[in-house]
Amino acid sequence: ASSNTEILSISDPATLASVLTVGVKNTIGDSRVKVTYEPEYVPAVPPPVPDIPPEHLAAMIKATVKVEVLDDNIAYLKIQHIIGEEMAQKVGPLLLEYIWDKVLPTSAMILDFRSAISGELSGIPYIVSYYTDAEPLIHIDSVYDRPSDITTELWSMPTLLGKRYGTSKPLLILTSKNTLGVAEDVAYCLK
Fold first, then answer.
1. Number of domains the chain contains
2. Is the domain of 147 the same as that of 178?
């Protein structure tokens, strides 16, 4: 890329973005990457979590999470949406009862993100921390938001609601071309 000085002469921003898209896709081999020119871009602000009773929130979570214990005491946990910190705090005890208490005593886990298409950035430390030790804290990721010029540092959490699954049991992570965004980050961090 540094030797390709022809792109420096492209004056139209949309054309430059198109040329850069092709170059980046070919360089890193990820067909989902796209460079765009958006001079009027305003970052989307996620709406606040509405004041919904915890039971209704739990029902919504149950619709996006499948949990079962398979033969040979292997937990299977399919997650389609990674909830954020705010919602996790509201429904934490229900999550423990519905999901975590079932999978905690298993001897291995399959974490299925093959259909995970949405999630909240603040949920990454919650999930990753259940598969790490309490100490020392681990730097999970740094996420840079260009429009606001803010880098968010994500660290493992020293305390959690419920017990940790730990680091000694086998953990298999399933991903696919449909694994997007936050779930991709969680899978990478757990790797």
1. 2
2. yes
